[in-house]
Amino acid sequence: MAYDRLGVDGSLESPLQPVSSEGDRLSALGYRQELSRVLSLFDNFSVAFSYLSPMVGIYSLYTLGLGTGGPRYIWTIPIVVGGMMLVALVFGELASEYPLSGALYQYGKYTIGARYGWFIGWIYGFALLATVASVDSGAVGYVASLSNIWFGTHLDPANHVVIFGIAGGIIVLSAILNSVGAKIMGHVARFGVYVETIGTFGVFAALAIFGFHQGLGFIFSSQGVEHLKTNPLGLNFAGHWWTGAALVAVLANVYIFYGFESAGDISEETLDAQRQVPRAMRNALLYGGIASFVLVLGLLLATPPGGIGGVVSGGINTILAELPGWLQDFFLLMVIVAFFSCGTAVQGAGARVAFALARDDALPLSAAIKTVSPRHHTPVNAIVVGTVVPFLFLLLVLVNPSKTVHILWFDYPANVNALYALVSFATSGIYLAFFLTVLGAFVARRRGWKPTGVFTLGKWGVPVTTIGAAYLFFMLMNIVWPGPLAGGRAVFDYGWVTLLVMAVIVAAGAAYEALARPDRSIARHSLER
Length: 529
Prior knowledge:
The chain is mainly α. The chain contains 23 helices and four strands. The protein has one domain: Amino acid/polyamine transporter I (Up-down Bundle), CATH 1.20.1740.10. Helix content is about 65%, strand content about 0%. A two-stranded antiparallel sheet has the order 1-2. α2 packs across α13, α8 packs across α16 and α8 packs antiparallel against α18. The longest helix has about 35 residues.
């Protein structure tokens, strides 16, 4: 017999036997089907892959990886993908057991307890919506460039008003498409997959035809980045690559390889979710890793004979400049589409987290936020939340101190808009939510939880969960730790600023939790089911 109740340790027990249909499984977990279950495996995979988006990540972070790790930074890709594959396996097992909107929130709620799950949902939801603002603002430079070329405009991508206007327009357009149906979101994501495939493998092929200048030995070299005098960013790693340069260079990939978990956020809109969602998570991560490796390989082999310094200072465009003009414009358009598809997928995932929390009356204005459109069967008001919050984050682009500002015991650098600090939180917040979720699965196993979903890890469950948690903890520390773990790295993640932003958001959540006690609402709903 299937049932839900509070366990003696506060967790939401779910000793569920296999059920005959998706509706039965949802009902066994205490919910009814309100959203349209219309997404296929490929749709689900497409949303997860579009969020991961190799093109968006590499076009944003390639110079960070190259400037800190040199050409051999490419070999940090399989390290990060391998570590995250362990996490994807754990998430897949949880997604198969609890195929619900809100994914990580639900996993924490059922494995540890209502309060634990709520905190994961709070942190993860904010990180997702911060990501929407950062991704869409990252598209501005490419939109402005293409507009200036095609339409003769004179948009300045560094102008804060231009950034706010273009990024804001993208956020609104994504919201419209997300609101009119999950199937539309799936179509946008599908198109994003096609574009990403062209924009990664296609760029490699084009560069192979027009612009390879280096041999394969180049990708095993560091080009002296571990030494101050030869580091193109002026960083000093005291001659240490693995224990210095690599710890910063790996962040260029750490910031890319997540998003696969969004396949779980849309579980209630996916056909055969218990089986397909875990598969979509693994496929999105694996294909994203392959596409990223191919694109970075092509860019490295096309490095001009002058060395990596010019590429680090001038960006990827210095490499693509050797392609014919029409081909440059084509790939520029592909990049813009990839950014848009990524932002739309992340906004959709963030809205589902807000919907899941509101459905358990765990947010302010929950009654309104959990409303489902009777026409489109989408969480329309949750999507409004997924629009308004990124807009509020986007306002930070207007905060741009002309002088270094001293905050507490550290300095905020001059001429760096505050949105960049938020970008760092977006990654660290997601890694914190990931770590807490995997830790929750580990604790649940220690308490005797045995997964009964369609996809389980069997005897590999304990080692995979343990190693996955250890990987996430190390990478989280590498992202946020402001000390000398990797010399000079505060240039990129602003050290104490990242920790301060995390502390403020977590403290705000703690204050709301202490006053409103949303965990009681979550527990009450669970007892009523």
